[in-house]
Amino acid sequence: MHHFSTFFFTISDINAAIYKCTSDSGKLSYSDKPCKSGDNENVISMETNKSTWLEQLRSQKLPSIKIMKVTGSGNNVTIEYKFKSLNDSHRFMKNASELSSLNVSLYKMIPESGNSFGFAVIKISDKKSKLFGSLSSK
Questions:
Q1: Which of 39, 49, 125, 130 has the smallest CB count inside 10 Å?
Q2: What is the pTM of this model?
């Protein structure tokens, strides 16, 4: 007979470890603390994603994107940035959407002109855009 359990962990904005412990009798348990002496221990390292999506966006951006200002936190972030081409700006917005798994809305766009950079403001949020919600067909 198999027993199934569900475990819920709350992890703050730091790297965390979960200890998978197996006793001599085969009993399996999970904990945020090291296993009891004598138990077989496997450490599962977990990184939280709050620090990752914005850091990944910064590290994966094209050299032609210059992030000027980031405000907000969590599921409500605004990013102001400069770009060399509209294609680069679109790619940056797509990366923001994919990495954050949130909705990205364009608030302001000034296209590039000649040798000068363009400028854009995007909002990354768990809220859907009111504009696109009102445009849906019935």
A1: 130
A2: 0.58
